[in-house]
């Protein structure tokens, strides 16, 4: 029987020793093991500490993102108030300095009154602005068969005429009721065709208009043509 030689205290000898075949040091072996264990998409280990400017830039970008999300979540009025308060905080001033003057504000009715025309022609519709378009849209909705008259200054031979609105058409004012705005009589109405001469924006114009008046208001209309 052949006996086996045992080295050491009960251990077995290894033929794959690090010392055989020109084996490297333990540090090189550890490096090889790290390369084998590293995944293809895994980034290498950072051996240097990032500069403080890099951290500062990243912090600024994060703050800018947070500020942008905060502003987007606000409505326009809240955003305006924030900008005004920030301006006062950094540059000084009073909130009253930022209040808008309402002296020149105009309503739709004011715009219509400024641009209204008794009759629109082709020349009036040239170079239309939004104010003129608003007045023209109001004019198109008027009922232009009969007029409503203001005869309060008939002795001075001064009369005012305007077209009827929807409520007056529904109630019959100017057709089945006297067309004088201060008269509500229904009996004895008579139709008149009047040559209305008026001045509009410095320009003299004429228009034939129709009226329905009671006998008393008809007398006022023809006061100077007895």
UniProtKB/TrEMBL annotation:
Region of interest (Disordered), residue spans: 1-37
Pfam families tied to this protein: Fra10Ac1
Sample GO molecular function, one term: phosphatase activity
Record-given protein name: FRA10A associated CGG repeat 1
Species this protein is from: Pygocentrus nattereri (Red-bellied piranha)
């Amino acid at each position: 029987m052949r006996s086996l030689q045992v080295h050491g205290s009960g251990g077995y000898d290894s033929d794959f020793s690090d010392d055989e075949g020109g084996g490297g040091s333990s540090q090189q072996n550890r490096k090889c093991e790290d390369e084998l264990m590293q995944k293809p998409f895994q980034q290498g280990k950072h051996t240097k500490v990032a500069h403080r400017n890099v951290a500062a830039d990243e912090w600024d970008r994060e703050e800018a993102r947070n500020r942008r999300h905060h502003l987007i979540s606000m409505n326009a009025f809240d955003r305006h108030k924030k900008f005004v308060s920030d301006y006062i905080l950094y540059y000084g001033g009073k909130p009253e300095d930022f209040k808008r003057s309402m002296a020149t504000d105009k309503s739709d009715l004011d715009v219509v009154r400024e641009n209204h025309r008794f009759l629109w022609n082709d020349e009036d519709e040239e170079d239309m602005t939004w104010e003129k378009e608003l007045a023209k849209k109001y004019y198109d909705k008027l009922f232009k068969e009969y007029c409503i008259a203001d005869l309060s200054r008939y002795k001075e031979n001064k009369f005012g005429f305007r077209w009827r609105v929807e409520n007056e058409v529904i109630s019959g004012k100017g057709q089945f009721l006297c067309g004088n705005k201060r008269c509500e009589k229904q009996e004895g109405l008579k139709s008149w065709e009047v040559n209305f001469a008026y001045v509009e924006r410095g320009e003299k114009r004429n228009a034939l208009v129709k009226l329905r008046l009671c006998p008393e208001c008809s007398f006022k209309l023809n006061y100077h043509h007895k």
